[in-house]
Design brief:
Layout lengths: L1 E7 L3 E6 L4 E5 L14 E7 L2 E7 L10 H20 L5 H7 L2 H15 L1 E5 L2 E4 L3 H13 L5 H11 L3 H14 L5 H26 L5 H7 E3 L1 H17 L24
Amino acid sequence: MKGQVLGFDGATGAITGEDGKRYSFEFEQWKGDKVPQPRDSVDFVAVDDVATEIYKTAGSFTAPSLDGVGDTLSGMGASLAGAAEKVDLNSGKLQYVRTRPKLILIGLAIFAFFFLNLVVFGRSSSTAFSLPGDLDDTAALFGIFGRGDDFSLSSSAAMLLWSIPLAGGFAIFREATGKKSRLAEFITAAGCLFSFVVYGMILASLENLNTGYQNFANVVQLGLGGYVFILCGIGLLLTTLGIVKTVPGWPAPEKKAAPDTEAE
């Protein structure tokens, strides 16, 4: 195999082979008259990662180039760009989504219900899905001191947030079957906005403890899921009322000009 000396410390050295790999060698394997020098072109026998029977050659050796890798990546980028250009924004499926932004909002709200934090309690947090159970545990804790009723009420209110996945799922089902359910859409929107009311009830419950509220106020915050609910709730109201009919920024389908016909 052809290669090039990378370095030599008087006892051992390293060679880069034409295959791009690095091979170590010992001076005993050097067959030249002079001490190996960096950039010496050599011919050697590779045994695993070790170079043996090393001979210095008169020709020059060019280390493997990464230009081919760059060309390959450029080609991949061009292919992806070409594929993106071929995406037909006027296709029926994409236009179906474009004219029904409520489906995107409902889907996002359902995702937030199960996976995004609605309330953050210091280092712990609760999604809308887990919040009723967490509030029940808190009510049981403060119930020892006769202060758990407010948290029980907040837990009951949090159960109403189940209207988001239930009504939202029903609205999506009706839309998929070619029907509409404005009531289900309104209930989903109301459930999203009601999340902020639940958050306020939790703060009020802490305030009613009369002690340590200031400390709690610094650590109890509305989570990302709460903000998503508010935005989805407002958006659903706008779409259900017909104020917003298409996804903002999504271009309308291009109208194809009718072919010119010559009069006979």
